[in-house]
Each structure stands twice: as C-alpha cells, then as structure tokens.
Amino acid sequence: MDDSVAPIRRTILPEDLVPLTTAAGVTGTVLVQAAPTLAETRFLLDLADRDPLVQGVVGWIDLAGDVEGQLAEIAHPALRGIRPMLQDIAQKDWILQPRVIEGLRRVAAAGLRLDALITPRHLPVIARLAEELPQLPIVIDHCAKPAFDGSDPGDAWRSGMSALAAHPQVCCKLSGLANEYGPGWSAEILRPVFDHVLAAFGAERMMWGSDWPVLELAGDYAGWLQTAKALSEDLSSSERESVFSGSAIRIYNLTGRM
Questions:
Q1: Which of 95, 115, 165, 211 is surrounded by the most beta carbons within 10 Å?
Q2: Are 174 and 197 in contact (CB under 8 A)?
Q3: Residue 158 confidence class, pLDDT cut points 50, 70, 90
Q4: Residue 92: inside a domain, yes or no?
Q5: Cα(236)–Cα(169) distance, integer angstroms
Q6: Residue 144 lies in a domain
Q7: Residue 258 lies in a domain
C-alpha cells in the first residue's frame, strides 16, 4: 500500500465497521482478502472467531501450489471462498493454466467459491473458466471494474458480462463502482452498469458489497448503500431482499453462521 491509498493505510478492524453497519441496519458481513498471503487469511479467520458481525471470509491461497495442504492449513467454518488477485497478475490467462485449473477443482470439491477480482480484459478468460469448471461457483467482484467513458461502461464490458451470466454458477457483486468512476459518481451515472448487471444476472445472482474500507477513497459506507438502494428502488421487495442479503446468504452459504 503506497501513498495513493494513504487515507486507508492504517489498522482497520471490525470495531471500526460496527458503527457503520449498526447505523445502516446491516447485521452480517463477509471479509475479503486484500493481501496474497496465508497469514492474512488466518488473521481474517481469527476475526470471524471473535466478532459475530463477521459471517464469512474469502481468503487467499497459492492456486499453483499445494492447494490441498493450504486448504488444510486454513480450514475453518467461516471460510467461504478463495480470491486470487487476478487484476495484479500481468498474464491475462494465468488462471487457465492446467495446474491452476486443478487447484480450483480442489477448491470446488472443498465446497468453496472463487471470488474473481478482475478487469474487463479478463471477461473472456473467466467465461472459459466457467465453461471448464461448471461445478465452481464464481463471484465477479466490483462488476468486473468497468472502465467508464462518461457514464458508459462500454460495449465490450456489456457483451463480456452477458457471456458470463450465461453460466448459472456465476454471480455478480454490486461493489467498487464508486472507486472505479471516481469523483462525481452518483446513482444516475452508475445506472447503466446496474441496469445491465440486473438484466444479465437477475436479482437472484446479484449481491451488494460495500468494498469498505477501500470505499473511503471515493465515498462512505452510508452514501454507497443509499445509492445502491436508489438504483434498486424499482425492484420488487423480494428482488431487493436478494440484492441486499438473500443472494449473499445463499451464494456464500452463510445460513450456518447467522
């Protein structure tokens, strides 16, 4: 973490989140890794042990290494998925290497999911992965980080997301958009992304995510939640329930932790 993220380069713990979730009426959260280390994953699992707000953890392992050994090392009731930091790997199709594919087979066999931290360049790659491993649930983080031209996320992003949505085991996390757009983001500006994700995946495969504390670089927890609710105001009550809780509970299988 360099000076570009100086405002959040500090120790941030669940007790810092509790006032925000309490004010928002949020009763559970899933922690997602931010560093490619087993040590951080163990740290997040320790937080789940001591704080009831934490209902699940998406951690990290080296998918090209001893996957079974690493999964045994971090085995924990709160572990719900694995996230390789694909956006930071220069090789676009790194995840399609045979040894990584085999590692993901073991992740799926362990009942875990893949969180896909990707940008639009990865969309065809993840579509190929979804075809290769239909048994692996995949969560697309941050709507695949569309590169905005004004408020338009681009035709390549739209077609890539539609292709992913054709695979029933793939879902999309409504998160990270404030940071991707930058200053001046609003419900009106972000609506083209929301509308396309909703049309492609449906509310039952769409989940809200805060992307907090990274969100603090572009906004705040309450403001992003209210923006997402404004984008969702025309949905039915059952669809809103899916976007803001039901999809996450079902897809991450949180019922045993609630």
A1: 115
A2: yes
A3: very high
A4: yes
A5: 23
A6: yes
A7: no
Q: Is 213 in contact with 256 (CB distance < 8 Å)?
A: no
Residue 256: per-residue pLDDT: 55
142, 117 Cβ separation under 8 angstroms: yes
Our count of domains for the chain comes to 1
pLDDT band at 149 (very low <50, low <70, confident <90, very high): confident
Domain that holds residue 156: 3-251
Distance CA 58, CA 116 (A): 11
Between CA 53 and CA 18 the distance in angstroms is 8
Q: What is the CATH number of the domain that holds 200?
A: 3.20.20.140
Q: Is residue 257 part of a domain?
A: no
pLDDT of residue 150: 83
Whether the predicted model's global pTM rises above the 0.90 cut: yes
**Residue 55 phi, psi (nearest 5):** -95, -15
Judged against a pLDDT cut of 70, whether residue 138 lies above it is answered with yes
**Hey, CA dihedral for 46, 49, 52, 58, is it positive or negative?**
positive
Give the tokens for residue 215.
Answer: 């969100």
